[in-house]
Design brief:
- The structure is a single chain.
- This protein is α/β, with parallel strands linked by helices and 266 residues long.
- It has a single domain, classed as Rossmann fold, CATH 3.40.50.720.
- It has eight helices and seven strands; from the N terminus they run βαβαβαβαβαβαααβ.
- A seven-stranded parallel β-sheet has the order 3-2-1-4-5-6-7, with helices on both faces.
- Helix 3 runs parallel beside helix 4.
- The longest helix is centred in the middle third of the chain and has 29 residues.
- The chain binds nicotinamide-adenine-dinucleotide (NAD).
- Nicotinamide-adenine-dinucleotide binds next to helix 1 and helix 6.
Amino acid sequence: MDDLAARVAIVTGAAKGIGAASARAMARAGARVAVLDVDGEAGERLAGEIRGEGGQAMAVACDVSDPGSVSAAVASVAQRWGGVDVLHSNAGIQRYGTVVDTDEDTWDRVLGVNLKGAFLMAKAAVPWMVRAGRGSIVITASVQGLLSQPNVVAYAASKGGLIAMARTMALDHAHQNIRVNVVCPGSVDTPMLRWAAGELGDRKRVDDTVSHWGRAHPLGRVARPEEVAEVVVFLASDRASFVTGAVVAVDGGLSAALFDPGAADR
Ligand code: NAD
């Protein structure tokens, strides 16, 4: 329960979905949690809910793709709570398109939020971890960084980039007692997934599309955000003290299958 006691944790994209589940779980594990999100109002609501449940949380409006916004947000957390011990870099956006129909603005925005955002957050947070003599960074990538599907050229590039970046960060900062790990979720029931189900399927039958996508996973369903958060909290905590540079699939077996004979029956 107190795996993150006395730790200061920053979670990005924390107002909704996987980030919100992570922020709640970190607070329950004893961390003081900074809820960073571009949607400042939703971030304030979540921080208020965490405090209402007895946890410690502050909300900071932050666009992770904006260097000024990131450095101001990290500085405000570190000044209030004396440092930064844990960073869950999770903010991300999804856009669909091939290399031909993805325009440059879309490419720049997706790479800017998903990949540069994690770079900027780490750049601002790592010096505080060095000062503390310890730190743990967890990055939310995706199974789409490992394997692919059609029509996700910018998103897949950003997620593959995160995995490569995390590995080199793990090597660069191991001697400073800073661990860097990646989670690769399959489909997770969040506002992003439901938006995608509306874009790609029948807008009136989002539940059916989500269930259909769930059946593609060997476990036969999509994940709950809390199931990803469990793994994030483990990786963030000292229970994972010898784990760094790892890429952990949280995907109901999706990336295990070359051919899944059970898929037709689900
Ligand atoms: P979501 O859209 O439900 O929530 C994302 C949160 O990030 C929102 O609160 C949003 O306001 C915030 N955000 C967006 N742009 C931001 C920015 N520039 N700066 C700060 N905050 C920003 O998404 P989710 O499904 O919870 O996804 C979280 C992460 O998990 C993303 O990186 C996503 O790519 C990844 N992921 C999701 C799934 C899935 O099926 N849901 C699967 C694999 C990976």
